[in-house]
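It is worth pausing here to work through a concrete case rather than discussing structure prediction in the abstract. The textbook approach is simple: state the sequence, then state the predicted structure, then interpret. We follow exactly that order.
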Amino acid sequence: MENKIEIKDLKLSFGDKQILKGIDMNIPKNSVVALIGPSGCGKSTLLRAINRMHDLNPDAKITGDILLDGENIMASNQDVTAIRRKIGMVFQRPNPFPKSIFNNIAYGLKINGLDKKTDVKFSVQEALSDCYLWDELKDSLNRSALELSGGQQQRLCIARAIAISPDVILMDEPCSALDPISTAKIEELIMRLKKDYTIVIVTHNMQQAIRTADYTGFMYLGELIEFGETNQIFENPQQELTQRYVEGNFG
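Step two, the predicted structure:
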């Protein structure tokens, strides 16, 4: 299977504290990859490294390579803005802009210079439709996005991410602040989006990983302990640490 992302010997420190200790991982194209592991093991740090968010932290020191479609996005001559356009990010808590529903998505198109190249109204409708929001919101596009429910806000943030046609979508615990019904909708959405995108999701919910992910990586203390097909990781783990974690006998 063709790899969308290849991570090679990725190490990351904040000051004197090493957080990632030589991560090697291949993420296949059009797959959902879940990162699991206890709090503080480096899952979110790894996720943020993939779209170079640590560039904003002067204490971060990072070595190793991350290849997107074979091109090293860690190279010093790379345009970080262009990388982030290709690699969308959805955070733990919904963070819609304090604008209308319509402008949440239109603004993303505008700041990425795509409003000149595309029919904005069509792009907004398409993104909302892809996220199961169009039928719910088509008559209230001028409402403030902040008036939506938490689940709707999170789907709007996903719609905002996909409107600019990225290659990859990173999701950092996208359901942790949501109720079970909203969580089910997001999971259904993740399953649908993988035909067009490669998705990496950080989750503490192991059932969510089982339901949504094609592949799962188990991280512990900054290391990738095991990576494989989700069924194998949960039913036949090769590492004792993985087995203890998925069976709940950890700590």
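Step three, interpretation. The mean pLDDT is 93. The chain is about 35% helix and 25% strand.
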